[in-house]
Write a structure and sequence with these properties.
Layout (H helix, E strand, L loop, with lengths): L9 H16 L10 E3 L7 E3 L1 H9 L9 H10 L7 E7 L3 E6 L1 H14 L12 E5 L11 H19 L3 E6 L7 H12 L8 H4 L2 H14 L1 H15 L3 H25 L4 E2 L2 H17 L3 E4 L2 E4 L8 E4 L7 H14 L5 E7 L3 H13 L12 E7 L2 E2 L16 H18 L2 H4 L2 H21 L7 E2 L2 H4 L7 H18 L3 H7 L7 H11 L1 H10 L3 H21 L8 H21 L9
Parallel strand pairs: 5-6, 5-11, 6-7, 11-12, 13-14
Antiparallel strand pairs: 1-2, 2-4, 3-4, 8-9, 9-10
Helix pairs in contact: 1-3, 2-3, 4-20, 4-23, 6-8, 6-9, 6-10, 8-9, 9-10, 11-12, 12-13, 14-16, 18-23, 20-22, 20-23, 21-22, 22-23
Length: 588
């Protein structure tokens, strides 16, 4: 996915140079992909690792090399001249180390400051993606797992959008299924007059769900009516559709309040949306000979998996898998997605694995990996409480997400007041900063972990102003902004007229880290790992601290250049915050 104008991505640019060199060095070896890795040793900033794997391939052929070291030497010699490279050396068994030119690095950073951070966006080979995330279930609780999916999905969408991919953000809400029979019947019972139904009258929808479930489990008559209601609803009976729509509407408002707070945009296309497409989907699969009968159900057998994928239940009803197959087909054929990403807890991994394999059997997706369109399941671990068990407030009750966000904000406001901001700031500033820090802390605590591992939810930890937390990072950014402000210089003017020089070792290290932004975002996108971006951001802030404690900025001979370096750091930090869905703070 390289591109000549992709100035930000050093790896891609070096890969191009080494590709040319490899062609000259070993002209008869086809499809050699340059292997470029960032390194941190004193010998170089990047290295090319091809020599070691090329050597066994050419050994014995009539080429003037003796051993991988000689191949490395030749790769080095044949490297086309480039202003980005300061020097090159061959080390060990044939590593070709590249030291970048500090002058070139400074030039590229200054260019980004003038042309905008978007010029450092990754270039991906996909154009349109569906990101299926959040996806809570109507009338059931939206729990911390859904929060995790929401936060991860939003960040993944933001990273892809930044990379100029058209992203269809899909909320695959659980708004269809047998539980609606019972909910509708219970609604009719409680509100004989349908006009009386509204959010206030229903109150807590989860409690409503529980109550109706109790009725369902204890009253055979009710159960029968509920089962009939499902049939009537699915048959499109107006009165039942209306009741269904009312219940969904109330639930939707509740979800929207959470999305609004988090600043997350989503388009709902719930399970019900795909219902009309299920029967034709199953017909197509059956025509292809994939559907078998098993114990009254219709299933697809998948090699290597010991349970079949049930797509029509023994009672003739459709299920989660039938909906997902119809949705997948829709996303491929109608929405023309070339990458479809599903974000749920790891517990659903097998479900997606089977759905994806079925789609490959049907020929909807290419059989080989690495071809498009492609699908990915982004699994994540559970959020734990202090007790090491699934996170809940009280022993039985799940955490209400809005309460959780409220608490994060309240706590960060208290911390600001303790720092004396109560007198210094207006109430509005206090509120806004508390919110940015509080919500940012919740998001960052979630995103910084490798998503596959479970993590413990702790306000104390996430709101700590030291260590790898949003608070620490937001403060660091605000401090940089205040250095620039206090210098009294017009930074936009400096961008146009000033020069950037990376002469001190800590200036250079910071500059190099800034320049790695593009390849890090690309890696985070390709591997769907927001934690990679968090780690980058944290290291950026560490690099900055080191620079700032060893290099005087304001009042020094290098002031202009160093202010520009501050501005570049703040710019990249803000882009990271933006990709992580975190609101930056400008003063502390
Ligand atoms: N509603 C599901 C749940 O709460 C998640 C749906 C994920 N998306 C999908 N296409 N299956 O577990």
């Amino acid at each position: 996915a390289s591109d000549e104008e992709n100035l930000g991505n050093l790896k891609h640019q070096l890969a191009k140079l080494f590709e040319a060199s490899l062609k000259t060095t070993v002209p008869n070896e086809q499809d050699l992909e340059p292997l470029i890795a960032a390194c941190t040793g004193k010998f170089g900033d990047y290295q090319c690792n091809n020599a070691m794997s090329v050597w066994p391939r050419i050994k014995g052929k009539a080429l003037p090399f003796r051993g991988p070291q000689a191949v490395g030497q030749a790769i080095k010699t044949n490297l086309p001249p480039s202003e980005m490279i300061e020097s090159c050396s061959v080390a060990g068994p044939g590593f070709v180390n590249v030291m970048l030119s500090s002058g070139w690095m400074a030039k590229i950073i200054l260019k980004m400051l003038n042309d905008g951070i978007a010029t450092w966006a990754p270039r991906l080979s996909i154009k349109r993606a569906v990101v299926d995330f959040s996806s809570p279930n109507i009338a059931k609780e939206m729990h911390v797992g859904h929060l995790r999916s929401t936060i991860l999905g939003d960040t993944i969408s933001r990273m892809l959008e930044f990379s100029n991919v058209v992203v269809l953000r899909r909320n695959h809400v659980g708004d269809w299924g047998t539980q609606f029979g019972m909910l509708i019947e219970f609604l009719f019972e409680k509100f004989p007059n349908i006009e009386d139904v509204n959010e206030a009258a229903i109150g807590d929808l989860q409690a409503f769900y529980k109550e109706s479930k109790q009725r369902f489990d204890s009253d055979a008559d009710f159960k029968e009516r509920a089962q009939r209601a499902v049939v009537l609803l699915q048959g499109g009976e107006a009165k039942y559709r209306q009741a269904w729509a009312q219940i969904c509407g109330i639930s939707r408002n509740e979800f929207d309040r959470v999305y609004q707070r988090l600043g997350v945009k989503l388009e709902e296309k719930g399970e019900s949306f795909y219902n009309p497409f299920i029967s034709s989907t199953i017909e197509e699969l059956a025509d292809k000979g994939l559907v078998k009968e098993s114990q009254g159900a219709r299933v697809i057998f998948i090699e290597g998996i010991n349970i079949p994928l049930i797509i029509v239940k023994s009672d003739g009803g459709y299920n989660y898998a039938s909906t997902d197959l119809a949705a997948l087909r829709y996303r491929l054929n109608e929405e023309k997605a070339d990458w479809i990403i599903y974000i749920t807890d790891v517990g659903q991994q097998q479900h997606f694995d089977m759905v994806f394999k079925a789609a490959k059997l049907a020929g909807w997706l290419p059989a080989e990996d690495g071809k498009y369109p492609k699908v990915s399941h982004v699994g994540f671990g559970v959020v734990l409480g202090d007790d090491g068990k699934r996170f809940r407030t009280r022993s039985t009750e799940v955490v209400r997400l809005v309460d959780l966000l409220d608490e994060a904000k309240t706590r960060s406001k208290a911390a600001l007041i303790e720092r004396g901001k109560g007198e210094e700031w207006t109430e509005k500033e206090l509120e806004e900063t508390a919110q940015a820090i509080g919500y940012g802390a919740v998001k960052y605590a979630d995103l910084k972990n490798n998503r596959l591992t479970s993590y413990t939810f702790s306000f104390d930890q996430m709101l700590n102003d030291k260590g790898n937390t949003a608070v620490y990072l937001l403060y660091a950014h605000a401090r940089i902004c205040s250095i620039i402000r206090k210098s009294g210089k017009d930074i936009d003017e400096l961008k146009r007229t000033g020069f950037l020089v990376l002469s001190h070792a800590d200036e250079r290290a910071l500059g190099l880290h800034l320049l790695r932004f593009a390849e890090v975002v690309e890696e985070a996108c390709t591997n769907l790992l927001p934690s990679v971006l968090c780690e980058y951001l944290y290291n950026l802030s560490e690099n900055f601290s080191k620079f700032y404690s060893n290099c005087q900025v304001v009042g020094s001979a290098e002031e202009t250049s160093r202010l520009l370096l501050c501005e570049a750091t703040a710019t990249v930090m803000r882009k990271c915050f933006d990709l992580l869905g975190i609101e930056p703070v400008y003063k502390i």
